[in-house]
Amino acid sequence: MTDRERLRQLIEARHDQLRAELSADTRATIVALTRARDSLHLATERAGDAPIPLDIVEKRRLYELGWNKVLRLCFEDPVAAVEPGSSLAEIATAEWADRTIRECGHLADVELVLAHAETGFMQLSHDGVATFHAWVTTKRMPTVWREREDFAWWGRSLAERLEPAFRSLSAERPHVLERLRAHERRHGSAAEASAAVSDVDGYYRRLATTYTRRMAHQHSYPPSASIGGCTFQVYVDVLGLLIGWMLEDLDRSQAAGQSLGDADAEIEPALAMPRSETRLVEALARALGIEPELSRRALTAFILDGENARYHGAPAGVAAPPLIRAGEDHVVWSAAGLLTEPILFLTRELKRRYTQEYHNTAHLREDVFREDLYRLFADKRFVTSAGTVELKREVGGVRTDLDALVFDRKTGTLGVFELKAQDLFARSQAERMRQRDNFYHANRQISALMQWLQRNDATSLLARVDPATAKRFRVHKVYAFVLGRYLAHFADGPEPDRRAAWGTWPQVLRLLEERAFDPSAANPLASLFTRLVKDAPLVDGAGDRGVREVSIGDARLRVYPSFAAYKGGAS
């Protein structure tokens, strides 16, 4: 048996142990676990810019890793390890929930190490007793690390841009809370109470809209795209209402406690309360003015249950579910799920439920990508193609198509862009390989472009875009680009064609500081090309990290940043 097989066997055994420790009362278990997850999330959210202690940072990391894992365990075939008559207070205490999520976080952490060992990024060794050792074998950053890095930067950038809006809303919150406290005390006339409710509802709608704007990087669908019988705008509107209701519910709980004289009232009692799915469907239909069946379709796409828990639990630490099934007609909404990556969860669920329809709408994502790109070249000095441009063989059909073209009248440069609108965070190594192969198909496209340019005048390519401009200007230089919406830097696979600049969309935004090119810019296309070529680091900073130890029940796994560190620290 290899060391990897031994570790896999240990992981499976630990999985069974943790599943056996869950209560047979799935609803009580989900309530307790969600309350623990959301309490930590809201506590760190309330901390704002204040430094977070290292132990809380580690706890949050384990919660993020373990969350999908523990929910997957909850929905697997039940193991009656506790007496059916045991109460929630005896089984699903806050301490139990915290320990369980952390233990599942450790297990997910070990699974990630095993996955790295299977790709060759890490090497494994077993001491023959109870300790595994793993060390990094290369300085090349794993693909998913770079993907997560770019995605996280994009999310931070959106949050920073919306910070003034959040500050303004935060300044209104004391007034809103006072309205809620007054309402709880039932003071004032019926007209005043009605006005208060109207003001409060408007506040939470604006707050929820700001949250959904902060999540814009989680998808690339136009509002009119329809999947599963609903447009994407309907899905986002449903999400906005759920976020607003959840935040209002938490504040009402706090206001109710304070109205009774508890100045330090906490919001935890309102967390993870099971709610009627039927009533939520009816409320959403009324609020949006849509048919209940449409409301139900949209709401269902945000719910984790026994049917999809394994699917969503595959990637560790990604997309906490916005709602969780807690009975035939009851769901629990999660603050962490609603406020972190709910649209990523939604797109995954749409892909699972409506696979063919999901793939049939992929071209719409490319259209959005093209529009986003052209916003960087909005000045009148630039000419852009309306859509794709086909390059044909001398004899026969299409040789390749070009996704986007940008011509700079001032410099005579032409930018040719291949755009890849991928899904975020592959669920498996096989899916990652498909993404890699699809992305590197651009090598053939770049080769076809260069061969075509050798036989044809580049100005004739401009004539395909704008014949009038081609009569007045000539193309002096062509720059080729390959851009992935989320993913461009793979740790393995073919060598990218260096005649093109390769990068991700968040990478482009970062390099340009999210600003469109200024009319006075000397040579924007040449500048972007040079910046991308120089800014493609795939070197991991693992050497800056120390040794990390992960528990696996009674065993342990020690992770080292290098083989040298392993040789110096293994015992």
Structure overview:
- α2 (26-47) runs antiparallel to α3, α3 (54-75) packs across α5 (94-119) and α7 crosses α9.
- The longest helix has 28 residues, at 232-259.
- With 571 residues, the chain is α/β, with parallel strands linked by helices.
- The chain has helices at residues 3-20, 26-47, 54-75, 88-91, 94-119, 143-161, 163-184, 190-214, 232-259, 277-288, 292-300, 309-312, 335-339, 342-353, 355-360, 362-375, 429-440, 442-455, 458-465, 467-472, 505-511, 524-534, 563-569; strands spanning 122-126, 131-136, 226-227, 230-231, 275-276, 303-304, 323-325, 330-333, 382-384, 389-392, 398-402, 404-408, 413-420, 477-484, 500-504, 548-552, 555-560.
- It is globular and about 75 Å long.
- The chain has a five-stranded mixed sheet with strand order 9-12-13-14-15, with helices on both faces. A four-stranded mixed sheet has the order 1-2-17-16. The protein has a four-stranded mixed sheet with strand order 5-8-7-6.
- It has three domains: 1-139 and 542-571, no CATH class; 148-360, no CATH class; 362-534, Restriction Endonuclease.
- It is built from 23 helices and 17 strands.
